[in-house]
Design brief:
Immunoglobulin-like, 3% helix
């Protein structure tokens, strides 16, 4: 009994293995062989048969393969002898093989290379086309595919999906047809399968299907909107605005101290002393907003609360309201009007102005970064101070009866500070090129310029310039400037008009001009001056000055720096008229020719031929 059970198990195992095996077969033949008659070769070529040839099966590219006589595990010798009729057949596991045929009749060994064996009826197996593989043309849903539910012919509109079905070879799930749904249905997922389903329209919703287009419309506008239940501090409302229109304008409000969030266009918010958030265009925020945030264009803010803060991002937005402060604006062509201070502008063509008389609004603590930004002050007795401009073609302007401009910093090119009505322009710092400080009717005090082709225009006081081709002048005003210093090349200092308080000015550089000033100094090369009480040294630079002119309360005097005789050039026609302080003259007698080598300190004069003593000791 035990032996019977073992035999049964072996048979069952062998049956399972047999299903993964295919056969390879052929004939003992060789092509292109001549017909032989009575020992004579004919010119006729035929397919010659060699019965009982020797057949050898190899694993493709390897050694001898294990082969069988049938699909029931009956062993077959390798190599083996073909039938007497020339036919041969062998079975082997799915794979790739080479088969050779040989015998005494063959002119050479015949090889069939790379034969693919694949049993198409093995569950889960995948067979490609090839000799003995059964992979020729076939229907998509056919028994050739082991994991499909056969179906033919196709039905228009059907889909193929993986479904909870079992194929004839036992594969589950299997690919199968999903028949076309009814008109208007869509393919949806239930989390496990893909299937046809219906779209159900809710309240005030219509669904229309025309050809390949499915249209979903709202018909009721949402009614009265939805209201969250009351009972807490942070209650809120979400609604359409205006109700019933179903447009893209939404208003969000909550009860924490009148705060609001506005998204959309052409809306108005008038909450008192609240926080407002606006996203969109052409929105209006009423007065008394203490904290406002605006993103968009053409929005208007009117904030009059002292200490309010406003953030504006976008274009063509405006912010108005006396005594407002702490404004940040980023964008283009935005404007801030009648503000108090703490203004920050980034962008182009933005404006911060205090222009309404009597508002008591100044422009202070401001920064403008960009191009063509403008800071303007007009009200009576209000200052513009502590402002910085970084960029190009920006302006700071103080007009009317204001206190003027003070503590301003400019970095960039073609920027302007202008006090048009003669008010003080004070503590101005400029770094860059082609910048201008104008105060043609008043006093310009404590101005510092570093750069090129900058200009200070007004009655100066303590103006410092470092650079070249800069200009400092006071137009038609009195010469009231003091402590003006210019260092560089090609710079100009002028005082044009009626005489006034002496101006203590100075230039250090080359090719410079100093005009109509008193008590001034200038050092350089090719320097010109036209007034009295002015020192001008026009010669090549030297570690030791050539001479010093001094004016004090007792008179004027000239100091020559003394040197040994051989320090000076030989006396000739080209040096005639030269006067020099000599420390080692051979004589102290007036008119004596100087040869040096002595101990006398004299003043010598070159007459075109000899150095002679003109003042001895």
């Amino acid at each position: 009994m035990k032996r019977l059970l073992i035999l049964l198990l072996l048979l069952l195992g062998s049956a399972g293995l047999a299903s993964a095996r295919d056969s390879v077969k052929g004939w003992c033949e060789e092509g292109n062989r001549p017909v032989v008659t009575s020992g004579l070769n004919s010119t006729t070529r035929v397919q010659a048969s060699h019965p009982s040839c020797t057949v050898t099966v190899y694993v493709h590219g390897g050694g001898l393969a294990t082969i069988y006589a049938d699909n029931n595990n009956t062993p077959l010798a390798n190599p083996f002898t073909a039938q007497s009729g020339g036919r041969w057949q062998a079975y082997a596991d799915d794979g790739r093989y080479d088969v050779t045929m040989s015998s005494a009749g063959f002119s050479q060994t015949v090889t069939y290379s790379d034969i693919i064996l694949c049993d198409p009826f093995v569950p889960g197996g995948v067979c490609a086309a090839g000799t003995g593989g059964g992979g020729g043309p076939h229907n998509l849903l056919s028994t050739t595919h082991l994991d499909t539910i056969p179906f033919s012919p196709p039905v228009r509109g059907d889909l193929i999906t993986a479904q909870n079905l079992t194929s004839p070879t036992g594969v589950t799930p299997a690919w199968a047809r999903l028949p076309l749904g009814t008109a208007g249905q869509v393919v949806i997922s239930d989390g496990t399968d893909a299937l046809w389903g219906n779209i159900t329209a809710g309240t005030n919703i219509t669904i229309n299907q025309s050809g390949s287009t499915l249209t979903i419309n709202s018909t009721g506008g949402g009614g009265s909107g939805c209201t969250l239940p009351a009972g807490g501090v942070s209650n809120g409302v979400l609604e359409e605005n205006p109700k019933g229109t179903c447009d893209d304008t939404a208003s969000f409000t909550w009860s924490l101290a009148n705060k609001s969030l506005q998204a959309g266009d052409t809306n108005t918010i008038n909450s008192a002393d609240g926080n407002v958030f606006v996203l969109g265009s052409f929105n209006t925020l009423g007065a008394n907003q203490s904290f406002s945030y605006v993103v968009g264009e053409n929005n208007t803010l009117s904030a009059t609360v002292s200490g309010s803060e406003n953030w504006i991002f976008g274009r063509d937005n405006s912010r108005t309201g006396a005594n407002g402060q702490n404004d940040w604006m980023i964008g283009r062509q935005n404007s801030i009007t009648d503000v108090s201070g703490h203004i920050f502008l980034i962008g182009r063509s933005n404006t911060a102005a205090s222009s309404t008389g009597g508002t008591g609004a100044s422009v202070r603590d401001c920064v403008a970064i960009g191009e063509s930004n403008h800071l303007t002050l007009a009200p009576t007795l209000q200052p513009l101070f502590n402002c910085s401009i970084i960029g190009f073609s920006n302006t700071i302007v103080a007009s009317g009866a204001s206190f003027g401009v003070s503590n301003a910093f400019i970095a960039g090119e073609s920027n302007t500070i202008n006090s048009t009505t003669g008010n003080l322009v004070d503590s101005i710092h400029i770094v860059g090129a082609s910048n201008n400080v104008f105060n043609t009717l008043g006093q310009t005090a404590e101005v510092e310029i570093v750069g090129e082709q900058n200009e200070v225009n007004g009655a100066q006081s303590t103006v410092q310039v470092l650079g070249f081709l800069n200009v400092v002048h006071n137009g038609s005003q009195q010469a009231t400037g003091v402590n003006t210093t210019v260092v560089g090349s090609g710079n100009t200092v002028t005082t044009v008009g009626a005489a006034g308080t002496p101006a203590y000015q100075g230039i250090f550089g080359g090719l410079d001009t100093l005009t109509n000033c008193s008590s001034c100094w200038i050092v350089g090369e090719n320097v010109s001056n036209s007034t009295s009480s002015t020192l001008a040294v026009g010669m090549a630079a030297s570690a030791t000055p050539a001479f010093i002119i001094t004016k004090n309360g007792t008179g004027d005097y000239l100091t020559h720096t003394p040197h040994a005789f051989n320090y000076y050039p030989a006396c000739a026609a080209g040096t005639e008229g030269t006067v020099a302080a000599i420390t080692n003259s051979n004589s102290a007698t007036n008119g004596t020719i100087i040869t040096g080598g002595g101990t006398n300190h004299v003043l010598g004069y070159c007459d075109g031929t000899n150095w002679k003593v003109i003042v001895g000791t």
